[in-house]
Amino acid sequence: MADIKYEIKETMGILSESPKGWKKEVNLISWNDNAPKFDIRDWDPEHKKMGKGVTLTNEELKKLRDVLNEMEL
Amino acid sequence: MADIKYEIKETMGILSESPKGWKKEVNLISWNDNAPKFDIRDWDPEHKKMGKGVTLTNEELKKLRDVLNEMEL
């Protein structure tokens, strides 16, 4: 992971926090200086280590919102 | 990945499809015969190969829904 450059532009929300302080976050992230994308993944408290996650376009995030709104949660 | 057992119990929605037929899906998946969890990731057309993704609890999915509903998409 050391050679991936990333910059968290904005944090939209925190979905959960583990006992060790890792948080599942929804962020807007620029990877390798590219245009920022939405991203859902786990992060350590300093945002230095990350877990696996998904990157989503604006269009995919809209669809995701619609899918979640149709579910009974 | 060959030794991970998974069973897709339900597909809640498709967020996008690539030219090669991979789809970003929201599924309810049982991993290694454990209780099913929600999951967002890319899948090949046969659901045999998968990309990286996130697994979410019911509680995390609710929070995600609330976060997305507060955003202007």
TrEMBL record, chains A, B:
<dbReference type="InterPro" id="IPR017154">
    <property type="entry name" value="PC4-like"/>
</dbReference>
<dbReference type="GO" id="GO:0003677">
    <property type="term" value="F:DNA binding"/>
</dbReference>
<dbReference type="Pfam" id="PF02229">
    <property type="entry name" value="PC4"/>
</dbReference>
<dbReference type="GO" id="GO:0006355">
    <property type="term" value="P:regulation of DNA-templated transcription"/>
</dbReference>
<protein>
    <recommendedName>
        <fullName>Transcriptional coactivator p15 (PC4) C-terminal domain-containing protein</fullName>
    </recommendedName>
</protein>
<feature type="domain" description="Transcriptional coactivator p15 (PC4) C-terminal">
    <location>
        <begin position="19"/>
        <end position="66"/>
    </location>
</feature>
<dbReference type="InterPro" id="IPR003173">
    <property type="entry name" value="PC4_C"/>
</dbReference>
